[in-house]
């Protein structure tokens, strides 16, 4: 038995009523083409796949990237998508995120990507100065870039659900 619950932008799939796993899928052309899930929850852990600023309404054969040339805006779009997935899988949002991995295609994009990260997860940020917001973080420059030259950043997020 598989149950599906739709949320804005995606659907949560529960393989069975006894499964400890549930999945979050969106209409992203890359998810459709490669057949991976945007997010997976297993017990109290939530793992969000590498997320970029891809336009989810674009075709898998011709994916479009939002804000070409603007690493900070691409980071904001990707983080919003990650937070949407965290919430859909039962997390609270910013407060539930414990780790962020940032992959940056060009060294010069590190500053703008870091600034956008700080807006979301800097000490006590999360849009409201919430002291529960803060993460472990890693930023890595990917010298060869990504599957699309217009992508400047890709983000992975891990979150925990409190019991």
UniProtKB/TrEMBL annotation:
Domain of life: Eukaryota
Pfam families: Ribonuc_L-PSP (PF01042)
InterPro entries, sorted: RutC-like_sf, YjgF/YER057c/UK114
Protein name: YjgH family protein
Organism for this UniProt entry: Polytolypa hystricis (strain UAMH7299)
